[in-house]
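note to self: dont lose this again. the chain is below, predicted strucutre after it. 132 aa total, dont forget to put it in the shared folder this time
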Amino acid sequence: MEMAITPFDQSQDFLPPASGTKKEAGLAPLLLTVLELVRQLMEAQVIRRMEQNYLSDLQLEQAAESLQKLESQVLHLCEVFDVDPAELNVNLGDFGTLLPHKGSYYPGEEGTQPSVLELLDRLLNTGVVVDG
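---
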């Protein structure tokens, strides 16, 4: 049996910009970007549930407190790894960006530029299940 060799693409297209980051940071910018994606997705879901009156005052308060703590931890880790929080994003070319630009997306409204966050939020809201 013959094995085919697939060339390794060392393109930097899918990595966050390295400007302003320490070389020692390694995967930290990418991991912090994914963490920020999850945080913003949770925030969008809380906003949706709040606007649909699915959350009690206590649940809303707990969710807000948790999201604030998570955001402060992300900012703290950005300081630790010398990563600019404004650079926590990944450009996916024609697919848009991983995170929306600040202020360009609100749950339930159509965003001005496509982002993975908007897609995931809409999928969760409609109840789409991916099998496999």
